[in-house]
Every structure is written in C-alpha cells, then in structure tokens.
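Hallway conversation turned thread

IA: we were arguing at lunch whether anyone had actually written out Crotonobetainyl-CoA:carnitine CoA-transferase CaiB-like acyl-CoA transferase end to end. Turns out nobody had. So, for the record, here is the sequence (419 residues) and right after it the structure tokens. Reply here if something looks off.
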Amino acid sequence: MTNRAAPGRALSGIRILDLTRILAGPWATQILADLGAEVIKIEHPEGGDDTRSWGPPNVTDDAGQDRGAAYFHSANRGKKSVAIDIAHPEGQRTLRALTKASDVVIENFKVGGLAKYGLDYESLRRIRPDLVYCSITGFGQTGPYADRAGYDFLIQAMGGLMSVTGQSDGTPGAEPMKVGVALTDVLTGLYAVIGILAALRHRDATGEGQQIDMALLDVQVATLANQAMNYLATGKSPTRLGNAHPSIVPYQAFETSDGHVILAIGNDGQFARFCKVAGIPGLADDPRFATNPARVRNRTTLIPILQGVMSGRSMDDWIAGLNEASVPVGPINDLERVFDDPHVRARGMHTRPVDAEGAQLRGVASPLKLSQTPPIPPAAAPDLGADTQSVLTRLLDPLEFDINDLQAAGAVSFKGDRP
C-alpha cells in the first residue's frame, strides 16, 4: 500500500492514478473511491473530462450554483481532480512521479496512445515494478480490431446485445434496440474493478505488478449470459422477444386496466399461486401450462389468455394480491417513481454529497452494503483542478518539483486558472 490504511475503509491506503474519461473507466474508479481508495483524476487543464460539458441537464448545489453536467457527476464522486497537460514534458515528468506514489494506474487511451508520452505500462513498470496498470479500450490490446475506437453503442451492436433487445420481428416498432443506459461501459467498469482487486491481491502476495487488458467487446460477449449459452447449445441465434423471456413463461410485461406491470414467474408453484389469485386455478393443471417447459412451448396460446385476465384489474389490485401470494410482480416506474419509492428511500439510494467547501448537491449512493467497511460518506464530484495544488504539494518531492514553476510553464493548472 502507498499509505497507511484507515480503519473501516476497505481500500484505504490504496492510491489510484486515474487517466480515464467518459464512463467505463470513471465508473470503475468511482467504485474504488466509494470503498476508500484515494482516486486522483488526471484531467486536461482545458475542459477536463469530456463529460463535464455533456449537458444539460446540469447539477446545481444547495446555493443554486451550476456545478456542471449531471453526466459527469454520475461517475466521478469521491475523487480528486488534478489538471495536468500530459502532452507537456513537465506534465509527463509530473505523472511519472505520481506513478511512483500510486498503486494503480488506469487509462482508456487508444492502444499505444500513451507510449509517446512515456506513460504506457512498459515505461511505468520500470519506475514502479509492482504497479497494477489497467487499460480499457473498445477491442483490447490485441486482435484485428485493436486499433479501432470503440463506444458503448457500437459495442452493444457488435457484441450481440442489440440483436436480443427490442420488439419481435413483425410487431409494431420492431428493430434492434440499445439498452437505455450505456450498459457495456458500466459492466466494463465493474469488471475492471474486479481485475484491479485481483491484481492487488496478487501484488500483495508476490510483489509482482501486472497489466489488465479490458475490452468492451470482450465484456459484452461475456455478459450475454444465458443468451450466449443458448446459442452455443443449439447453434441458433436467439431472436428479439420484446419484454418476454426466451426460457421462462410468463415472464414479461402485461397491460392492466390502468397501466403495465411486470409479471416474473420463475417456477411452477408461483404459476399455480398466480392462477389462484387470477381466478383461473384450472389453468395451472392444464398439461399445456403445468410446467415451465410446457408453458415455453405453448406461450403463443397462454399469453393471450393471461393478457385477457390481467386487463380486467388495476395495477394496484394485481400488485397487492400477487405480493400477498408471494408471486413476483411490480410496476414499471419512471425515475420520479423510483426515487419516491419507499424501499429505495429506506435503502438510502438518494444522497446529498458535499463538496470540499461544504456545498451540498444531489447524487446516487453506492449500492454496496458492507457491515464492517461500508462505502465512505458521499463526496461530490470535484471541480476541474480543485485538488491540483494540494495533491502535488503532498506527493511531489519539493527538491525535484516546484509546483509554481509547473503552473507557470503550463504543465499543470489550479482551479480557476483557465475557463
């Protein structure tokens, strides 16, 4: 570890040098920051992370001051912002010095993009042999597509996710559809955290560092889960089924008298209980529908019957009755209803992070609930360059670096130096 661990923080003592931007990398480092690691986010002095300008909507603090794009705040809480120009020789020298003081470097530049600055893995491992270095790209460090740029939307398409998302062919609105959030980026961030933690465990056991090669396309293929195995088992590509499930019936959206609910019946006992609540108990004994394999084979017969029954009652009526019978059911909430949900509120998922000056913003909590080492209290995403002076003063050798000279040379900037 680079510094002493603090009690109650799982990753305290671990320092992360974060050279990522947009979403996959920042999502990973945000999780690490939640768990107590010190995350030093390196940003270009002019504009910083691209997502700082990906608004509106923007976030305002409790004083009504505009704090930048909501997108940026979604993935950068709890970090320190240090503004360094990596194209400047003194900026590169500064980053190499920060690497010596860090456990992990994480970056999402194009393959080979950091080599010209002497900031690639092979260069930095000579400075710190036990360094954990995580590279995130669209297609990985090897393979025929390695030099291509990769974005979440593109990878959802190339990696097969869009082929199984959307309405069925021949139905209204039928076309391949992306997921409503940049899911491949988020999943890649999660896998990057897993890889970093595994590499740190190996380093602590052996003293050896290593490079982690994370590719969005690899992650997308891996997380096709049962759909991928369905193809490998049959040789047939799964098709789009809208809100239906390829292997479980009934497991989809149904229209009630005043809205839609999700019915997620996972076993035959739940189906029997549903039929009792619905007033059609004999359907559960019908050999066409008594077991899940039978229901899958006969879905085109069963679903219209169930839809006819579901449309006769209200959402609240179905939700109350089916929950009482332990049958999984729920509404399709918009985000207003999500954050107003009593269970979401009870779980503390809407937070009020505070910045270094004490201003309060709005944010989303970490979902991790650890009894001994919970995530740190939420801290707001930093302003650009907010921590340049304090971090460099603390971590750079004053005999080798004069931070005022670095600023004067344009290698670094402090908060408010530039527009």
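OS: looked through it. The mean pLDDT is 96.
IA: good, adding that to the notes. Residues 183-206 form the longest helix (24 residues).
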